[in-house]
Structure formats: structure tokens, C-alpha cells
């Protein structure tokens, strides 16, 4: 008997729970879901809760397109801006490859030049050393040629000539590196200009009264894409700039020290002025 009463109590509690929870769940579901379309009174067309006809085969409008749509859908200024970004990136790649190839030990101070100059200086033949410099054009050969051309003026003048020629070669190398820095600094500015243009278009769309969500999303996409484009160009360019610059400074110091070692024997060299 007690078991029967317990079962009846459990069944009654479950029925009461179902009667209470089911209407609440139904009301929440109806509040969250949009009103279902109903059939029109006179035909098979569907209508919404307000009685407006609904096209059952209507597809949702697609949002803003991909990258190509953003580039060519941003107006004349946007296309010019993207062209400038692409050109800036191409210029950065060119100068990075150019400096990466040219700023090498074998380019700045060829080993054949060092060997020929060492042999000429050991023999005391300054003219042979000058011809060796002319046969191997390089920054180091320019510095050594400046030293050999002032061999008659004394060692102090030779050192001054070496320092002046080395400063000139360093400036030439750094000028090439500076273009990488220019490209890396220009890219974020172009990206910021595109961001400003996109925000201007956003506010212009909002000022129209009833904004087009697709146009608004496209304007925001334009602003973000240009910012991303500028950073994509700037970050690698800046990384390569500092890497190549540090390598150039290290090689220049090595070249200067090696040059001073090569011209040390010039203290005791006597040159025949008639030669």
C-alpha cells in the first residue's frame, strides 16, 4: 500500500511539473523565435504575422564581398590607395633583396683584393696595390685606393683619407638601407589613410537616415583591410631593415679594421716620385 501511494505521488508530481513547465517553455520559445509564416487566406502564398507576403524561395542577401570586392568597391580614392600599398610593398621587396645581396663580405671586401693588396704592400709596390684596387671595384678597394694615393703625404694623412673614404662608403650603404625604412614607415600611413576613408564612408552611410547594412559593413571592411595591408608591408620591412643594418654595421667595422691592418706597412714605404 505504501508503495502504491508513493508511485501515485510521483506520477502526480510529474504531471504537475509538466503542466507548469510546458507552457513556460512554449512561451519562451515563441518569444525567441520569429513569427512563423502563415498561409494567405486566399491562396498558397505565405504571409508573416503582419500579413505581408513572404517569398519562400527568397535568399538572404550576401554580406560584403571578398578582398577583390573591397579593393574595387572602395571608389577611385580606394583603388589609388591600394595601388600605392602594392607599389610600396613591391619597392620594399626590391630594396630588401638588393641590400641582402650587396651587403655581403664578398661584395664589401673581396678576398682576392685582400690577397693582392697584401702581396703588393709586402713587396713595397704601391702602384701594384693601386692597380689591384682598380681591378676589384668594391667599398674596400675605394678606401684602400684613397690611402695609397696619399702615401707620400705621411701616415697621418693616410689615416685621415681612410676615415673620410670609409665614411663616404658607409653613407652610400646606409642610403640604400634607408629606402627600406622609408617603405616600412610609409605603409602604416597609407593604411591609416584607408582607415580614415572607410570611417568617413561609414558615417556618410549612417547619415543617410536608413543605413544600408551591407554598405556599412563594406565600409568597415575597407577600413580594416587597409590597416591590415599597411601592417603586412610595414612589419616585415622593419624587421629586415634592422637585420640588414646590423649586419652592415658589423661588416663595416670589420672592413675598417682590416683596412687599417693593410695600410700599417705604409709607414715605412718610400715611393719613387718619378715612377
Blueprint (SSEs and pairs):
Layout: H1 2-32, E1 38-39, E2 46-47, E3 53-54, H2 67-72, H3 75-102, H4 105-108, H5 111-123, H6 126-135, H7 139-149, H8 155-206, H9 213-263
Antiparallel strand pairs: 1-2, 2-3
Helix pairs in contact: 3-8, 3-9, 5-6, 6-7, 7-8, 7-9, 8-9
Explain the overall architecture.
- This protein is mainly α and 275 residues long.
- It has 2 domains: 35-64, no CATH class; 67-268, no CATH class.
- The chain is built from 9 helices and 3 strands; from the N terminus they run αβββαααααααα.
- The protein has helices spanning 2-32, 67-72, 75-102, 105-108, 111-123, 126-135, 139-149, 155-206, 213-263, and strands spanning 38-39, 46-47, 53-54.
- It has a 3-stranded antiparallel sheet, with no helix packed on it.
- Strand 2 (46-47) and strand 3 (53-54) form a beta hairpin.
- Helix 6 (126-135) packs antiparallel against helix 7 (139-149), helix 7 (139-149) packs antiparallel against helix 8 and helix 7 (139-149) packs parallel to helix 9 (213-263).
- It is rod-shaped and about 90 Å long.
- The termini are far apart.
- The model is unreliable at 1-48, 54-64 and 271-275 (pLDDT under 50).
Amino acid at each position: 500500500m505504501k508503495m502504491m501511494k508513493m508511485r501515485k505521488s510521483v506520477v502526480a508530481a510529474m504531471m504537475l511539473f509538466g503542466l507548469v513547465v510546458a507552457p513556460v517553455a512554449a512561451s519562451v520559445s515563441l518569444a525567441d523565435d520569429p513569427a512563423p509564416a502563415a498561409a494567405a487566406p486566399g491562396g498558397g502564398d505565405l504571409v508573416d504575422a503582419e500579413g505581408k507576403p513572404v517569398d519562400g524561395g527568397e535568399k538572404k542577401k550576401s554580406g560584403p564581398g571578398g578582398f577583390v570586392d573591397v579593393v574595387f568597391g572602395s571608389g577611385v580614392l580606394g583603388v589609388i590607395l591600394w595601388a600605392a600599398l602594392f607599389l610600396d610593398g613591391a619597392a620594399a621587396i626590391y630594396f630588401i633583396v638588393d641590400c641582402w645581396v650587396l651587403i655581403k663580405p664578398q661584395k664589401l671586401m673581396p678576398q682576392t683584393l685582400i690577397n693582392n693588396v697584401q702581396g703588393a704592400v709586402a713587396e713595397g709596390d704601391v702602384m701594384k696595390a693601386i692597380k689591384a684596387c682598380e681591378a676589384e671595384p668594391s667599398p674596400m678597394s675605394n678606401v684602400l685606393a684613397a690611402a695609397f694615393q696619399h702615401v707620400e703625404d705621411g701616415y697621418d694623412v693616410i689615416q685621415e683619407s681612410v676615415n673620410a673614404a670609409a665614411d663616404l662608403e658607409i653613407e652610400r650603404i646606409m642610403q640604400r638601407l634607408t629606402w627600406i625604412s622609408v617603405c616600412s614607415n610609409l605603409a602604416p600611413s597609407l593604411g591609416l589613410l584607408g582607415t580614415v576613408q572607410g570611417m568617413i564612408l561609414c558615417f556618410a552611410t549612417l547619415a543617410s537616415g536608413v543605413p544600408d547594412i551591407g554598405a556599412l559593413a563594406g565600409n568597415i571592411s575597407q577600413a580594416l583591410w587597409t590597416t591590415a595591408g599597411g601592417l603586412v608591408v610595414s612589419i616585415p620591412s622593419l624587421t629586415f631593415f634592422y637585420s640588414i643594418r646590423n649586419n652592415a654595421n658589423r661588416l663595416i667595422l670589420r672592413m675598417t679594421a682590416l683596412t687599417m691592418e693593410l695600410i700599417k706597412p705604409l709607414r715605412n714605404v718610400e715611393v719613387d716620385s718619378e715612377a
